Structure formats: structure tokens, C-alpha cells
Amino acid sequence: MVVLLLLLCLPFILYLATPKIRKMLSSGVCTSNVQLPGKVVIVTGANTGIGKETAKDLAQRGARVYLACRDVQKGEQVAREIQATTGNNQVLVRKLDLADTKSIRAFAKDFLAEEKHLHILINNAGVMMCPYSKTADGFEMHIGVNHLGHFLLTHLLLEKLKDSAPSRIVNVSSLAHHLGRIHFHNLQGEKFYSAALAYCHSKLANVLFTQELARRLKGSGVTTYSVHPGTVHSELTRHSLFMRWMWQLFFLFIKTPQQGAQTSLYCALTEGLESLSGSYFSDCHLAWVSGQARNETIARRLWDVSCDLLGLPTDW
Ligand SMILES: NC(=O)c1ccc[n+]([C@@H]2O[C@H](COP(=O)([O-])OP(=O)(O)OC[C@H]3O[C@@H](n4cnc5c(N)ncnc54)[C@H](OP(=O)(O)O)[C@@H]3O)[C@@H](O)[C@H]2O)c1
């Protein structure tokens, strides 16, 4: 009888305990009290999920925050929401479609003309498990948006970041990078394609890019970090019914977007992190990267191949 009663009460108990369980599981909290008046920030994919919460926190600290979104209407709605909650009117929306190098170049051109400085660039936008598709420039969607799009954006904004030093670049990667491999002979997934693995490969590319960029930026005053935000309730699972089910099944163990933003914020704000440039963080701590992610030869080759695909010089 007692057991039956307990079983009947279990959903209610779980419901009451959910906030506590979530708090326990999301140990990483950015405790920095750095304020950002006069600082300029770009967050890509800031109209929803982790990016939106990252932008909100940075706006709360007084920065001028650019929401770089492919859907300007959605972005404007979020900008109004952030302005209302933070009281910061300097939340601006600009069109950026990372699946189109023309859009990336147009975004960067306008930004460079508009702003004297850029102190923080958060390369956050991402897609996961899309059916096989290509960007406007013919790149496979995951590698095109998650890696090449941010690679080009960073290249175009780098001089501004250097001029604004100390400045930081945060690349939002994932724990999924551990399953990733850079198959140079099949970078565009034309020989074989798995939507899940394509995501992992692109997230590995984020970690390799961060490390190679850090090596090249030594002494410039610009530092860079890659992060795993945790498993976060967001729209990322939109292309996979299975993943949506999994996220629902394990909802107790999944972070809110606000909790998911903490490691990006930690890397963007924490004082004294400069010597760890190039490192990978999770839950606001240094974390292990996969074997391939530590391979400098692969990082350098990926850099050269990315430059080649995008028509960029390799020595930046
Ligand atoms: N959620 C997780 O559990 C998790 C775990 C590990 C890593 N991450 C990483 O965290 C980052 C943020 O993801 P999220 O969970 O917040 O997902 P989300 O809610 O789906 O947000 C992704 C954002 O990226 C934008 N985006 C997608 N394609 C774009 C494009 N071509 N150009 C410009 N923006 C584009 C989306 O814009 P639209 O709304 O217009 O589509 C959206 O704003 C991603 O890099 C993801 O890989 C997430």
C-alpha cells in the first residue's frame, strides 16, 4: 500500500524536485561581476536558445550587443525583450546568414563601418542533424555553418578585435566533438554522410580552429576559447524527432538555456584566463578534448583547407 502510494506520488515529487536536480547537475556558473559599459559584443544565433541568454547577460552588464541573426524579425523581437528586461537600449539586430558567405561579408562590412571596436565575439550559432543539404556556396551544411561560416566571420573581424585588445573570441563547440573526425577526403559529406556524425565533425572543427587561432594570435592581446555548453533545452534538436524524444525523456538532466550560457560567459568575462587561450571548457572548467582535437597537424591542415575553400590567404 505504501509502495503504491509512493509510486502515485512520484511524478509530483519529481516535479517539485526538478529545479533542485537541475541546479545540482549544472555546476558551472559564471560568477564574474565584470561590467561592460563601452564594450562591443557580437553574438551569432542570438535569437533563441543559448545565444539569446548569452546576449541577455552581456546586455545586462552594459555592453552594446549585436544580435547576429539570419531571421531579423525574430531577432528584433528578442532585442525588444532584452531591452525591456535589462534596460539596455544598445541591443542591435543585424542580418547574418552563416550559410551564405555573401551575407557574412555584408554583415562584416557594415559592422566594420559602423563600429570602432569589437571586444567580444561569441561564435554561437549552430545547426545539428540536418538532412544532407548545402550552403549557398556548396559546403555541406554542418561544416559550412558551424565551422566555415564562423571561420570566415572571425577572419573578417580579426583586425577590429586586435585593435580593441584585450579582446576575446568564444567558439561554441560540443562534447560531441569527441565522436568527430576530420575526413579531408570527404569534408563535404559527398562520399558518405551521417547527419549525426556531420554535426560531431563540425564541432571538432570548432575545437581545432580555436587551438590553431590561439597559436597564431599569441602576443596580439586577442584570446580564444572553445566551450561545451552542456546538454541544453533549445531548438537545436529541431531536425531530429529522436533527439527531441531523448531530450524530453531526460528533461530532468537537461540545462535551461540560461544555464547553458554560463560557460560561454565564463570564457568571455573571467579575468586572468588569457594564459589558457586555445583551451576547451565545460561547466566553467577546463575540460578534456579528444585525441584528434589535440593534433596540431590536423589543426594546421584544416586551417589551410578552410582558407582554400573560402578563398582566403592562409597567413592570418
Ligand atoms: N543545446 C545543446 O544541448 C547543445 C549542446 C552542445 C553544443 N551546443 C551548441 O550550442 C550552440 C547554440 O545552440 P542552441 O542549443 O542554442 O540551439 P538553437 O536554439 O537551435 O539556436 C541555434 C541558433 O543558431 C542560429 N542559426 C542556425 N543556422 C544559422 C545560419 N545559417 N546563420 C545564422 N544563424 C544560424 C539559429 O537561428 P534560427 O533560429 O533562425 O534557426 C539559432 O539562433 C550551437 O553551436 C550548438 O552546436 C548546444
From TrEMBL:
Catalytic activity: all-trans-retinol + NADP(+) = all-trans-retinal + NADPH + H(+)
Annotated signal sequence range: 1-17
BP GO annotations: cellular detoxification of aldehyde; retinal metabolic process; visual perception
Metal-binding listed as a keyword: no
UniProt-listed Enzyme Commission number(s): 1.1.1.300
Pathway info: Cofactor metabolism; retinol metabolism
Enzyme class: oxidoreductase
GO CC annotation terms, alphabetical: endoplasmic reticulum membrane; photoreceptor inner segment
Gene Ontology terms, MF aspect: aldehyde dehydrogenase (NADP+) activity; all-trans-retinol dehydrogenase (NADP+) activity
PANTHER family: PHOSPHATIDYLINOSITOL-GLYCAN BIOSYNTHESIS CLASS F PROTEIN-RELATED, RETINOL DEHYDROGENASE 11
Protein family (similarity comment): Belongs to the short-chain dehydrogenases/reductases (SDR) family.
Name under which the protein is recorded: NADP-retinol dehydrogenase
